[in-house]
């Protein structure tokens, strides 16, 4: 019995250790593992920074994007991933993603994040996924720049045409 209990507590401890290992931003948002297998909503390119980005969404976000539902329902999450670019080694007039820059998240929970338009903001920088922000106030930077698109529930990205 004792051995059995020890085994249970070890398993629990291992669980807690894994949970705390996830990088977490000062406003308490942890990296969402598995974002890389979400659906693509749209790519974007920022010429001044020379970054290629892709905006991905979980099922709730993708459905809201497809149907044009605004405001986004609770549970919608979008991720924006950015890479530097390089000339394609086999076809130099084309560019392709090179080094990972960062991943950002917007998590919809109208009550919890009421102060920032119902969105929880988080950014993880570099391959080591370092949480961004000295303190929880960093979200003002995100929210501030997203405010011009308040009319689209603070979301810049539009779903482009995907004829099929
Ligand atoms: C200087 C302006 C600016 C700031 C600051 C900013 N964003 Fe954005 N964000 C954008 C733009 C513009 C887009 C549209 C995609 C693109 O052009 O890369 C975007 C897109 C996004 C998206 C995809 C959903 C959408 O709105 O299109 C997420 C997620 C996101 N940003 C998270 C964040 C987080 C988290 C922060 C703060 C750590 C942040 N952003 C700060 C300008 C900004």
Strands, helices and their partners?
Elements: H1 2-21, E1 39-46, E2 51-57, H2 59-67, E3 77-88, E4 91-108, E5 119-125, E6 130-131, H3 139-146
Antiparallel strand pairs: 1-2, 2-3, 3-4, 4-5, 5-6
The structure holds heme C (HEC).
Name the descriptors.
164 residues, alpha+beta, six-stranded antiparallel beta sheet, 6 strands, 23% helix, 33% strand, binds heme C
The percentage helix is 10-25%
Q: Number of domains in the coordinates?
A: 1
Q: What's the overall geometry?
A: globular
Model regions low in confidence, pLDDT < 50 over at least 5 residues: none
Spatial arrangement of strands, main beta sheet: 1-2-3-4-5-6
Structural class: alpha+beta
| Alpha-carbon Rg, integer | 19 Å
Report on this structure.
With 164 residues, this protein is of the alpha+beta class. It has one domain. Helix content is 23%, strand content 33%. It has a six-stranded antiparallel β-sheet. 21% of the residues are buried. The model has no long low-confidence stretch (mean pLDDT 92). Bound molecules: heme C. Heme C binds next to strand 1, strand 2, strand 3, strand 4 and strand 5.
